[in-house]
Amino acid sequence: MRLPKIVTTLQDYSLRLFLADLAAGVTVAMVALPLSLAIAIASGADPGKGLVTAIVGGFFISLLGGSRVQIGGPTGAFIVVVFSVIAEHGYDGLVLATFMAGMMLLLAGVFRIGGLIRYVPEPVVNGFTIGIAVIIASSQIKDFFGLQLTKVPADFLDKLEALWGARGSASFAASAVALSTLLLIVALRRLAPRFPGLILAVGAASAAVVVLSLPVETIASRFGALPNTLPVPSLPEISVDRIVELFPSAVVIAFLAGVESLLSAMVADRIIEGKHRPNAEMLAQGTANLASSLFGGLPATGAIARTATNIRAGGKTPVAGLIHAVTIFLVMLVAAPLAGYLALPAMAALLVLTAWAMSEPHKWKHYLAEPLADRLLLLITLVLTVLVDLTVAIGVGVAIGLALRLREHGKPPEDWSMPER
């Protein structure tokens, strides 16, 4: 079934449901706002692009999606591939790759192949997710400690060498802001899990920077003023050569968007005891990425952390996701200059915690208890993601995983014995 969930949920919609969705939508917007800015910065893009993606992508994911409570926007899973595409092909190349990925996801929904993503071996998903988390965390070391580096190398090992070489330039003020933000976020999550502690922690740390005149970089000091409205939509520049050149990147973006959104929808199903529509979700992801690219935004997908926040805050229907997008748009209209004061070390702390959550440390013990083949597959995918390339990691991981699965299907059961005739 490919009908959006909003079609069925609005049939018996009520004022009580709207008030619950309103409170949840505003709450999750306060969580999504600093995250969207931080993800765009870590991706090598202008921070305003994160807001555009949260507004446009988030709106269409909720409007057309197959989950009652899914919240969409830019996510940490895309940071590695987006950074790589921008570095190699420029930002216009990323926009075209996102546009192409949107078309691929639309086709996946039309031909009802959204459910096939669940057959990707779980160790592969876990491996590249942990690998992405490692890369995200390492990319934030510079801003977390205020290191003086003109350019951080893209290669992981070269990056670590450059960061270690710059250790003498660490700023006490930047480190204090980052650590304070990190500790405050953790404390608020434990003491008031329903409260949007991310915006409060980042805002409080940034306010301290302004009041105390600390020598710490902010969004405005590095990137200039944030936009206070959405850009005029336009088609990316398309040519055959450019399509061929960007095709592998588009495939990876489409794959990540599909995997992340369906994982998020399945997590939400377990919490609310519901059932999402995978093909409707693919159509929504395709539309959201097409729309985001037309507005010059980043790739968008369902966000597990923001979806969980929506559920905890009482979100009941896709209307909460629409309200989340509209709230961010209103903040952009009236408070963009204030967001420019957000301190970069505070944003770095936010992304370090995001990376930690992405790696799902509570599952590490479970991974170690898995069969040897699964552990090796996870490790191979993780190492290739960090040291080589995400595209290679996914390709090699899926190929090895499918080969192992075929080998297992060809084996007789352990208690098999020759039947008596």
TrEMBL record:
<feature type="domain" description="SLC26A/SulP transporter">
    <location>
        <begin position="18"/>
        <end position="367"/>
    </location>
</feature>
<keyword id="KW-0812">Transmembrane</keyword>
<feature type="transmembrane region" description="Helical">
    <location>
        <begin position="123"/>
        <end position="141"/>
    </location>
</feature>
<feature type="transmembrane region" description="Helical">
    <location>
        <begin position="246"/>
        <end position="268"/>
    </location>
</feature>
<dbReference type="InterPro" id="IPR001902">
    <property type="entry name" value="SLC26A/SulP_fam"/>
</dbReference>
<keyword id="KW-1133">Transmembrane helix</keyword>
<keyword id="KW-0472">Membrane</keyword>
<feature type="transmembrane region" description="Helical">
    <location>
        <begin position="71"/>
        <end position="87"/>
    </location>
</feature>
<feature type="transmembrane region" description="Helical">
    <location>
        <begin position="21"/>
        <end position="42"/>
    </location>
</feature>
<feature type="transmembrane region" description="Helical">
    <location>
        <begin position="195"/>
        <end position="216"/>
    </location>
</feature>
<feature type="transmembrane region" description="Helical">
    <location>
        <begin position="93"/>
        <end position="111"/>
    </location>
</feature>
<feature type="transmembrane region" description="Helical">
    <location>
        <begin position="376"/>
        <end position="404"/>
    </location>
</feature>
<feature type="transmembrane region" description="Helical">
    <location>
        <begin position="170"/>
        <end position="188"/>
    </location>
</feature>
<protein>
    <submittedName>
        <fullName>SulP family inorganic anion transporter</fullName>
    </submittedName>
</protein>
<dbReference type="InterPro" id="IPR011547">
    <property type="entry name" value="SLC26A/SulP_dom"/>
</dbReference>
<feature type="transmembrane region" description="Helical">
    <location>
        <begin position="326"/>
        <end position="356"/>
    </location>
</feature>
<feature type="transmembrane region" description="Helical">
    <location>
        <begin position="48"/>
        <end position="64"/>
    </location>
</feature>
<dbReference type="Pfam" id="PF00916">
    <property type="entry name" value="Sulfate_transp"/>
</dbReference>
